[in-house]
Amino acid sequence: MSAPLRPGLVVVRGAGDIATGVIQKLVHAGFAVVALEMAHPMAIRWRAALSPTVQRGRWQVEDLTGVRAADWTEASALLASGTLGTVPVLVDPDAAVLAEVTPWALVDAVLAKRNVGTRRAMAPVTVGLGPGFSAGDDVDYVVETMRGHDLGRVIASGPALPNTGIPGLIAGRAAERVLHSPIAGVVEVRRGIGDVVTAGQVVCVVHGDTDAEVTSAIDGVIRGMIPDGFVVPARFKIADVDPRVELASACDTISDKSRAIGGGALDAVLQGLRAAGHYQPPPWRP
Asked: 194-224 pLDDT, tens per residue?
């Protein structure tokens, strides 16, 4: 027997910075949103994400408040409270909650560059962000996540652009913006999110079989940094330096890219709900 359908509910897989942009657009449009995360979230732009809710119990990003919920019963109660901007966050990377409830729509915002198990049968409308999904096959719609003219575009048939492995170009900088761990080990943060750094400056140290310093390749502001004490494998993405130092004061806010992708996800959800007969806009009156 399928789980009962909950009109107005959208489940978002992931609570990282891109997922948070999606969640905000959905909440602003009046949907009830539940986010599903891993037990140890790996978002490096965590100050602009709801993922820290998992460890901290509550976390604020702009007008959203993430509140950790143990299960669907707690999540449902939080949504029923009617507090605007409250987003229950469950530790549920496998989306097991769908055995108890069927949302109107499900958005996979994990951005794993592959499908981590989302299927069209999970909800009346399913949306996948970026590479790894094919609209009309494993999901109903795909939203383009690559920077450029098509960022945020809704794709109704076929996949998003393939992953190039090269970060998007910002102020003339691409691959050098992103820092990776040279070895496996425990990260000691030396310069945190919001700090302005210069090329060659040590931003963190990875303690493994040896100690490996990680330095910034460019001048800029640290927009993303893995939390202090996080255990990482070798070559893991651990930091993101933005050459636009004027954005130092904006590191706690949802990014332009997240807002664009969030708008695309909302567009896809509304298109799907209208096609499925679950949603009709209010009638126009002169």
From this structure: 999 999 999 999 999 999 999 999 999 999 9
